[in-house]
């Protein structure tokens, strides 16, 4: 049986999406390879926003998201905003 999934890579103002059909059992790594979107700059994967690994098994209709590395440390960003509010 075949499994259809969507692989998505997003940037702030644009995204790429590729639908792939894979043989069961399909994994995140299989979907990324079949889509051609994977790259060395990927920080990880998610399936519908939930953290996943390359070995995570996929189901029909899943959306695999390619995660990018953080541009800034969230804790440091909050500290700077709080410091700016204090004056």
Question: How would you characterize this protein structure?
Answer:
The structure is a single chain. This protein has a five-stranded mixed sheet with strand order 2-1-5-3-4, covered by helices on one side. A hairpin with a 2-residue loop joins β3 (44-47) and β4. The mean pLDDT is 88. It has two helices and five strands, in the order ββαβββα. 24% of the residues lie in helices and 34% in strands. It has a single domain (2-86), classed as Roll (Ubiquitin-like (UB roll)). The protein is an alpha+beta fold and 87 residues long. It has helices at 28-35, 74-86, and strands spanning 2-10, 15-23, 44-47, 50-52, 63-67.
Estimated structural class: alpha+beta
Determine and state the CATH class.
Alpha Beta
Number of domains: 1
* Residues in helix, %: 10-25%
Radius of gyration: 17 Å
CATH fold call? Ubiquitin-like (UB roll)
Strand content: 25-35%
Parts with pLDDT < 50 across at least 5 consecutive residues? none
Looking at this structure, what is the CATH superfamily? Beta-grasp domain
- Across the major sheet, the strand order is 2-1-5-3-4
Give me the strand/helix succession.
Answer: EEHEEEH
Number of strands: 5
CATH architecture: Roll
List the helices and strands and how they pair.
Layout: E1 2-10, E2 15-23, H1 28-35, E3 44-47, E4 50-52, E5 63-67, H2 74-86
Parallel strand pairs: 1-5
Antiparallel strand pairs: 1-2, 3-4, 3-5
List keywords for this structure.
5 strands, Mopterin_synth/thiamin_S_b, UPF0125 protein H0E84_14435, 5-stranded mixed beta sheet, alpha+beta, 87 residues, elongated, RnfH_sf, Ubiquitin-like (UB roll)
């Amino acid at each position: 049986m075949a499994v259809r999934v969507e692989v998505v890579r997003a940037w702030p103002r644009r995204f790429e999406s590729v639908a792939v059909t894979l043989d069961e059992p399909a994994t995140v790594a299989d979907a990324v390879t079949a889509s051609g979107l994977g790259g060395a700059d990927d920080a990880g994967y998610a399936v519908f926003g939930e953290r996943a690994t390359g070995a995570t098994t996929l189901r029909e209709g899943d959306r695999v998201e390619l995660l990018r590395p953080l541009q800034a440390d969230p804790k440091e960003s909050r500290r700077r905003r709080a410091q700016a509010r204090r004056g």
